[in-house]
Amino acid sequence: MKFKTRKIAELGEHVFFKKGIKGIVEKVNENSVIVNIIDNQTEKQFEGNRTVIAHKNYQIIDCI
């Protein structure tokens, strides 16, 4: 898995967070993003498979 070095994700990009969760950015806010979870390798549960993540708490995945 390759990570991009940019700090803020854009709409539709894939992100990785919490050591095992991948998602797609649905909305970009000033201090956070709303992510639709597509792969969860942890025991954490998310209502509606969505969560809010601060920009400093995720990494952008290079899907190319």
Structure report:
- With 64 residues, the protein is mainly β.
- It contains no helices and six strands.
- The radius of gyration is 11 Å and the shape is globular.
- The mean pLDDT is 92.
- The Rg value, from CA coordinates, equals 11 Å
Q: Which whole number gives the mean pLDDT? A: 92
Q: Which strand order does the major sheet show?
A: 1-6-2-3-4-5
**Helical residue percent?**
under 10%
Calculate the terminal CA-CA distance, rounded to whole Å: 10 Å
Shape: globular
Largest sheet: 6 strands, antiparallel
Total number of beta strands: 6
Q: What structural category do the secondary elements indicate?
A: mainly beta
Q: DSSP strand (E) fraction?
A: over 45%
Order of helices and strands: EEEEEE
Which regions are unreliable across 5 or more consecutive residues at pLDDT < 50?
A: none
Number of helices: 0
